[in-house]
Amino acid sequence: MPLELSDFPEEVQVAFFVFSLLTDRWEGMSGSYLGKYWEGIDYIFKIYGIPDPATTYFYMKMWENILVAHRLQEAERKRKAEERKAKSSAGGGKTYTHNVQG
After folding, report:
1. For 35, left (φ over 0), alpha (ψ -120 to 50), or beta?
2. Does residue 43 sit within a domain?
């Protein structure tokens, strides 16, 4: 059964909330996910009155690392699938022709 947000401790729930407020960074040419922009994190901590910013930041960075690794694996899987598809459609398979005379 998948975990719900309420299954996590309050500090982790806060980290997920603040993490969702940050803007994503994508590499322009390949479209790879690079993580989040962290420039305004101290401002967000002040606005929402986060009681323990260091712990929240720790969980946010942990989640970012997991997310980046997952998206990298997914992109690699899709790339390999595209390569297999291109190879099979570009004559990679054998075609048989028969000369039938009657």
Report:
1. left
2. yes
